[in-house]
C-alpha cells in the first residue's frame, strides 16, 4: 500500500466510504466509543430515528474525510454535525487542519448500509 502523505495540490480531493450498519447496533445502545465519536455525535445520534444508521454514516464520513485528506488523523478529531436544515458538515477538531481545509460532506443510510462522500480543498491563504 502506498505511503500516505499530505495533499500537496490546491485541487479539491474526494473521499467515499461505505459501512455495514450492523457494526454499530450495540454501540448505539452503549453510548460509548469516545476514541471514534465525540460526545456531541453520540448525543445527536441517540436522538435520531435510527441511532445505528446515523452512527454508521458518521463513521463512513470520518473515513471519507480521511481519504480526502490522505492523512490518518484520529476519528474523534473529525466531528460530523448537522446544520439547522439537517444537512451534515465536517467539524475538524484538529486546529491546523481546520485552519487549512474546507470541506463538504453528504451522508446516506439504509437499514443495512451507510455511506458518505466528502470533498475537501485547501483554503486560500489570507493576504497579510
Ligand atoms: C433530507 C434528505 C437528505 C433525506 O434523504 P433520505 O433519502 O430520506 O435519507 P438519506 O439516508 O439518504 O440521508 C439522510 C442524511 O441526509 C442528511 N441530510 C438531512 N437533511 C439534509 C439536507 N437538507 N441537505 C443535505 N443533507 C441532508 C443527514 O446527514 C441525514 O443523516 P443524519 O440524520 O444521520 O445526519 C432528502 O429528503 C433531501 O435531500 N431533501 C432535500 C432537502 C430537503 O428537502 N430538506 C428538507 C426541507 S423541509
Structure explained in plain terms:
The chain is an alpha+beta fold and 128 residues long. The protein has one domain (13-122): 4'-phosphopantetheinyl transferase domain (Ribosomal Protein L22, Chain A). Helices cover 30% and strands 29% of the residues. The protein is built from four helices and five strands, in the order E-H-H-H-E-E-H-E-E. The protein has helices spanning 25-30, 39-46, 51-69, 95-100, and strands at 13-20, 78-82, 88-92, 101-109, 113-122. The strands form two sheets. The protein has a three-stranded antiparallel beta sheet with strand order 1-5-4. A hairpin with a 3-residue loop joins strand 4 (101-109) and strand 5 (113-122). Helix 2 runs antiparallel to helix 3 (51-69). It binds coenzyme A (COA). Coenzyme A is lined by residues 48, 54, 57, 82, 85-88, 107-109.
